[in-house]
Specification:
Blueprint lengths: L4 H5 L15 H37 L8 E5 L5 H10 L6 H10 L9 E5 L5 H10 L5 E4 L6 H10 L20 E4 L5 H21 L10 H14 L6 H13 L7 H9 L10 E2 H5 L22 H8 L8 E4 L5 E4 L2 H19 L97 E2 L23
Antiparallel strand pairs: 1-2, 3-4, 5-8, 6-7
């Protein structure tokens, strides 16, 4: 019988708990030692990596070893390792491995671009990486002066060794905009020509759209043609619009332009401005579509590539009635509305030239021959045995009459002289072209026609030439 309620519930003896396995002290000690060593090893590795990263980052961002600015070219199709090696060999960086990992960790490895880069003294590796990733290559410049022909521009492009590629053909005259252009090493020449053409088209459309009303120019090309002439007639900024006005006024009146640069271009084309040249009377008489002494209106095309300033001068010329201009001795010109005023300007220029020569040209006082630059032409430009040829008529100046009884200029050159209107008549400001092969003189004057083929002086682009003074009277016979 149960002795208590508890005993009635318990059915039997409760088994004891299982016995614990007892590990040896040696086993426990080995496990703890291994874990402690592993943790220590990993800690040392992490500390070493952290120190390396810290030192590498400092090296990557601190100033580099470069002592002075240096330009280094990164070739096409090279990888990060090759770029690091090139930079290290050129002294831009110290450790190529640090640069390589720094670029990778910065996420710039796939953005590095080839090209020519300028690295400044002390530049850091990070700055080097950013510079190459941004593609900030060195920009070179090439200047093409206003008025150059397309042939001259092509020659300058071909002689530049930083450009690449060939040029298929010389561009059309007047289709390029002279200016200073920036480019990177390795750029193709054709691409730079395309940029010059695009610049010309854009500026031409802009200037043509702002032109004044009533110009005797039918198309933008006409504006380019006249601007190319203005470009060769003056290099002074304060005279461009005034010189343009003279030509515009002459076109409106149906007068011939009578300008030497057009003849030279018709004779020599794109090589017309490569050296000083002279114009002979035979040149004036020879068939030449660009001869504005014989042909009315504009020549058939531009004689160079005018710059923006010359185009703007033609599109908005000065409001004057001037029809003539001649050099004034200061590098500029004296302008005139009438032939009488023009003749007085020519006389003043003649005196200035005589004073400069100090009688070196001979007792006749005729002007020495001039080259395209306005300086005395080199020796050998006149036929042997002849005196210095006189200058050709200034722009717009008629071949003036010679004083009665005086012979033609020595050598048969075209010798401009002040115009003397016939008795009882008024002088009119219109050009009168010389008869090919002869020297103009008034009716009844003595002298034989000049011989064709003798050289006439080329007027410089920035100054019209002058008239030759008559020879002094012979000395009185001895008493």
């Amino acid at each position: 019988m149960p002795k208590s309620p508890r005993e009635s519930i318990v059915t039997g003896e409760v088994p004891p708990p299982p016995a614990k396995r007892v590990r040896s002290r040696m086993a426990r000690s080995s496990t703890l030692g291994f874990m402690s060593g592993l943790i220590t090893f990993l800690t040392l590795i992490l500390l070493g990596l952290g120190a390396a990263v810290y030192m590498g980052r400092s090296e990557f961002e601190e100033p580099g070893p470069l002592k002075e600015t240096k330009v280094v070219a990164i070739p096409q199709r090279v990888g990060l390792s090759e770029i690091s090696d090139i930079l290290a060999k050129n002294g831009v960086i110290t450790y190529d491995l640090v640069f390589t990992w720094g670029v990778r960790l910065s996420g710039l490895a796939d953005r590095l671009k080839p090209g020519e880069y300028e690295f400044k003294a002390g530049i850091s590796m990070r700055e080097v990486a950013d510079l190459i990733a941004d593609g900030k290559v060195v920009q070179h410049s090439l200047t093409f002066p206003e008025g150059w022909t397309s042939e001259q521009i092509v020659a300058r492009l071909l002689e530049n060794t930083m450009l690449t590629g060939k040029i298929a053909a010389v561009p059309e005259e007047g289709s390029l905009m002279p200016d200073t252009y920036k480019f990177e090493r390795g750029r193709t020449r054709e691409s730079l020509i395309a940029q010059m053409k695009a610049t010309q088209e854009r500026r031409l459309a802009e200037i043509w759209g702002k032109r004044v009303d009533g110009l005797p120019l039918a198309t933008p090309r006409d504006m380019v043609v006249l601007a190319s002439i203005v470009e060769k007639e003056t290099s002074r900024a304060d005279e461009r619009s005034r010189v343009a006005a003279v030509f515009i006024n002459r076109l409106r009146k149906g007068m011939r332009l009578e300008t030497d640069p057009t003849i030279l271009y018709g004779l020599y084309g794109g090589k017309a401005w490569l050296e000083g040249r002279t114009i002979t009377k035979a040149d004036l008489a020879a068939p030449n579509a660009y001869n504005t002494y014989k042909n009315a209106g504009l020549p058939p095309g531009p004689i160079g590539n005018p710059g923006r300033a010359a185009l703007e001068a033609v599109a908005n010329p000065s409001r004057t009635n001037e029809l003539f201009f001649v050099a004034d001795g200061t590098g500029g010109h004296a302008f005139a509305e009438t032939i009488e005023e023009h003749n007085r300007n020519v006389q003043r220029w003649r005196l200035i030239e005589a004073a400069r020569r100090g009688g070196a040209a001979g007792s006749e006082g005729e002007p020495v021959a001039q080259g395209l630059g306005g300086l005395p032409a080199p020796a050998g430009t006149r036929p042997a045995g002849t005196t210095a040829p006189a200058a050709k008529p200034p722009v717009g100046g008629a071949p003036a009459a010679r004083p009665a009884g005086t012979p033609p200029a020595a050598g048969g050159a075209v010798a401009p002289r002040p115009v003397t209107p016939a008795a009882g008549t008024a002088a009119t400001p219109r050009p009168v072209g010389p008869t090919p092969g002869t020297a103009a003189r008034p009716a009844g004057s003595s002298g034989t026609p000049a011989t064709a083929g003798a050289p006439a002086t080329v007027r410089p682009p920035a100054a019209a030439t002058t008239a030759a003074p008559p020879p002094p009277p012979p000395p009185p016979p001895p008493q």
